[in-house]
């Protein structure tokens, strides 16, 4: 009997175990974060809700896994179009449905159910759409030329541009950067010649460096093009202690909390530094203070293992479409984790994006679980197609 036909052998148990570890770390960190006074008035058990969202996330994985990747490829434009409609709805719906939260119109509010941020799901919809664009293009143009590569890059730009414009209108800069990271990851593995990519990346680097230089040494040149709060956020990142009572308050308290944890931390629920929003965007400060360098390293290691596993799946699959989807998911999670952890220790500016699978947040967690459900689908439906005969013994 071929044991590979067993249901249990078609499930990616490595990924299941990693998600269980993430769930435990998330619930414990949030349970500790909500003990501070700011959450007492809300009368909400965020840790319990996060556990419930994780259960819902596993259900989403099960539903996603029931469909094979060929079906997702066929549905790519339907999912992408649905996501675009949801983003457009944020701009036209009344405030009773789309409230103004944290300086942006990014969430739908539903009675009983709570809020939903469609951009978190649009990330995965865009990954599927971009993967289809690249896979179809490479199938149609077997002979690669500079012209065909430029045409592929143009199509990628159009698919990416639509959600970027709609998200910019909210506005939500952090989410826009995630979409750019997703596209960059897929472009890097798309086969586009480096003669085209290298000048593009060098130009982006040069523009970014020039803007930073101007912000620091000649801000008067760009004040008319940027809102005051955007400039303050940059200055508070570069010189947080000058703005510690205002825009850099979260950053300075986060660094104090993480630094005070030292090597082994202060112990569970023994925090002494108050950090606003420490159950969402600044959850890493809770880990750093309570468990120190050791605990923070464990969280980083979990992300490393997750990225390593997703990379392994990407390299083992023989389907280009699947590989491009994996590349997009890897780019999304890597950028999220790097940006979130970096902003809590002043390596990167604060952008307001959560730490995936750890921060409290229904839309973010369900969006990532949906994306990982695609990886489960690859293993569930294509194991004998994906893996070499040596691995199937």
Automatic annotation (TrEMBL):
The chain crosses the membrane at residues 12-31, 51-67, 79-101, 121-138, 150-167, 173-194, 201-222, 291-309, 321-338, 358-376. It comes from the Bacteria. InterPro entries: FtsW/RodA. It is found in: Membrane. Keywords: Cell shape, Membrane, Transmembrane, Transmembrane helix. It comes from Jeotgalibacillus proteolyticus. The lineage of its organism: Bacteria, Bacillati, Bacillota, Bacilli, Bacillales. GO terms for cellular component: cell division site; plasma membrane. It is a multi-pass membrane protein. GO terms for biological process: cell division; regulation of cell shape. GO terms for molecular function: lipid-linked peptidoglycan transporter activity. This is Rod shape-determining protein RodA.
């Amino acid at each position: 009997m071929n044991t590979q036909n067993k249901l249990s052998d078609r499930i990616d148990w490595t990924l299941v175990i990693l998600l269980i570890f993430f769930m435990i770390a998330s619930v414990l960190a949030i349970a500790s974060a909500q003990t501070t006074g700011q959450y007492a008035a809300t009368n909400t058990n965020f840790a319990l809700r996060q556990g419930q969202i994780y259960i819902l996330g596993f259900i989403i994985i099960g539903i996603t896994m029931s469909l094979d990747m060929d079906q997702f490829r066929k549905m790519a434009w339907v999912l992408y179009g649905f996501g675009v409609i949801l983003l457009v709805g944020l701009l036209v719906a009344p405030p009773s449905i789309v409230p103004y939260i944290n300086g942006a119109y990014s969430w739908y509010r539903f009675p009983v159910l709570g809020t939903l941020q469609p951009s978190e799901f649009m990330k995965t919809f865009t990954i599927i759409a971009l993967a289809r664009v690249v896979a179809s293009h490479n199938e149609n143009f077997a002979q690669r030329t500079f012209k065909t590569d430029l045409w592929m890059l143009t199509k990628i730009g159009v698919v990416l541009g639509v959600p970027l414009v709609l998200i910019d209108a909210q506005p939500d800069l952090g989410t826009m950067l995630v979409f750019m990271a997703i596209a960059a990851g897929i472009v890097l593995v798309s086969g586009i010649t480096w003669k085209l990519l290298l000048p593009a990346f060098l130009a982006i680097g040069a523009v970014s460096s020039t803007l930073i230089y101007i912000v620091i040494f000649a801000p008067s040149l760009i004040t008319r093009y940027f809102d005051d709060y955007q400039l303050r956020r940059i200055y508070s990142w570069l010189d947080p202690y000058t703005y510690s009572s205002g825009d850099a308050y979260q950053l300075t308290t986060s660094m104090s909390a993480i630094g005070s944890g030292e090597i082994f931390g202060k112990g569970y629920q023994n925090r002494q530094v108050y950090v606003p929003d420490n159950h969402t965007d600044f959850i890493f400060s809770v880990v750093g203070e309570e468990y120190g360098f050791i605990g923070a390293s464990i969280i980083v290691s979990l992300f490393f293992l997750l990225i390593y596993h997703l990379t392994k799946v990407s390299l083992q699959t023989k389907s280009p479409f699947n590989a491009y989807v994996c590349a997009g998911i890897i780019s999304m999670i890597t950028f999220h984790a790097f940006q979130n952890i970096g902003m809590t220790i002043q390596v990167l500016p604060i952008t307001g994006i959560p730490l995936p699978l750890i921060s409290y947040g229904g839309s973010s967690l369900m969006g990532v679980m949906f994306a990982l459900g695609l990886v489960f689908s690859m293993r569930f439906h294509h194991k004998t197609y994906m893996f070499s005969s040596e691995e199937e013994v």
